[in-house]
Specification:
Elements lengths: L12 H25 L6 E10 L3 E5 L9 E11 L4 E20 L2 E6 L7 E2 L5 E15 L3 E5 L5 E12 L2 E16 L5 E14 L6 E2 L21 H10 L2 H16 L1
Antiparallel strand pairs: 1-11, 2-3, 3-4, 4-5, 4-7, 6-12, 7-8, 9-10, 10-11
Helix pairs in contact: 1-2, 2-3
């Protein structure tokens, strides 16, 4: 049985324009959907390390971004003897732009660094102190009996420095994790010591984006929403089907038929 030849249907100009509009919209929808389907790139650069910063040593961190260090942690210890007294002073400080506060005593202003706990947010809302010496911890032993200490980094474990730095004129945020312990004593003579250990550091590669202290990787890819939370978007689905061409048209018609029966 011979089939009759198919008839050619001339479409009006307005229909052509509508189809062209659909094709353009479908292409755009297909591109956007493809972009959304790509896996998210890692945004946090994390480096575990183990560096002991003992008295009269220092360590610089450049985050691998160039020759200029982002952070310089110094541990300076001095001991003086006198005919009437001995004096020991040890100061752990950081040079950079770190989260902290300032305090004024007897007309002298000191800048001190916060010892942040895991989970703290480091970002634009934080107050930062930028100076050649932001105090982490000081210990002083004077006359072998007068002990003094200052700073929030005395005898802490797994605390975080909040860090801010510039790249191409934009702020980036990061953290450095340290353990710090101090010793003070008077026998057989006045002594004071601070020992610090840098165990890791990380920073956010996206400008002006906060980072969570202790976080070592970017957020996991977004999980599919539960069925109860999903929103139907038939327009987007229709455009996606149109974007795949002629095979999609039959799918589109079939979906319309099923929809009419529901």
């Amino acid at each position: 049985m011979r089939r009759s030849p198919r008839k050619t249907v001339n479409l009006s100009e307005s229909v052509h324009q509508q189809l062209n509009s659909y094709a353009l919209a479908a292409g755009a929808a297909g591109v956007s959907l493809l972009a959304l389907a790509q896996p998210s790139e890692a945004k946090i650069v994390y480096r575990p390390t183990l560096v002991n910063i003992s008295p009269n040593t220092s360590y610089t961190v450049d985050f691998g971004l160039g020759p200029v260090p982002i952070l310089a942690i110094g541990n300076v210890r001095t001991f003086r003897t006198h005919t009437t007294y001995n004096r020991c002073f040890d100061s752990l400080s950081v040079k950079g732009d770190v989260a902290g506060f300032s305090t004024t005593s007897r007309g002298h202003t000191s800048r001190l660094a916060y010892a942040l706990s895991s989970g703290a947010t480091i970002g634009p809302q934080q107050k930062f102190q930028q100076a050649s010496s932001v105090i982490m911890a000081d210990v002083v032993n004077k006359y072998s009996v007068n002990f003094h200490s200052r700073g929030r980094w005395l005898n802490v474990t797994n605390r975080y420095l909040g860090i801010r730095f510039h790249v191409n004129g934009q702020f980036h945020y990061g953290w450095a994790r340290l353990n710090v312990r101090s010793r003070l004593g008077s026998f057989p003579f006045a002594y004071c010591q601070i020992f610090a250990t840098l165990t890791a550091y990380a920073y956010e590669t996206v400008p002006d984006t906060p980072i969570i202290a202790g976080k070592t990787h970017s957020a996991d890819a977004e999980q599919p929403a539960p069925a109860s939370l999903k929103t139907n978007t038939p327009e987007a689905a229709t455009l996606g089907v149109l974007a795949i061409g002629a095979p999609g048209l039959s799918i589109w018609r079939r979906e319309e038929s099923v929809g009419a029966l529901q």
